[in-house]
Amino acid sequence: MGYTKELLLFRHAKSSRDDPGLDDFDRPLAERGIKDAPLIGREIAARGWIPQLALVSPAARTTETWKLAAAGFASAPRVRSPESLYLASSSRILTEIAKTPETVERLVVVGHNPGMEELARMLAGQRSDEAARRLVDEKFPTGALARFTFSGEWKDLAAGGTALTHFLRPKDLG
Asked: Fold for domain 4-173?
């Protein structure tokens, strides 16, 4: 049994669909997304949740979300951008999380729906905060952040094995 760990699931901020000729992978953030991402970043810093490692989907909108969110951090976390995180299913995200070194106590995954929402619902166990759980069950909107705590190793993360402690939405912070 390892130490208590924290997992942050961060859905990319609102993206733009203004250019219909642009490939989905290359879509940038919309104006609202550019405003929302730093809000979440400031909240992460203010609460002392700055991760040691960020797993960021290589898509333009996720990369931009993370850059804007992490811009105000005193020290930048290491970043890995596995191609498999682009539009990943919940099981694919878990596979990437399982590769995290045990020395990492706080990890953020910046990704896409429906995988992020599915994973958040799946991981939230009995000790989850009821209000946060209700919000996640309702919707995992763009720019939202779910925070989980658990004891054990990253490779053992499983359904119901964590406590969902917080669910932050940009509209609640702005």
From this structure: Rossmann fold (3.40.50)
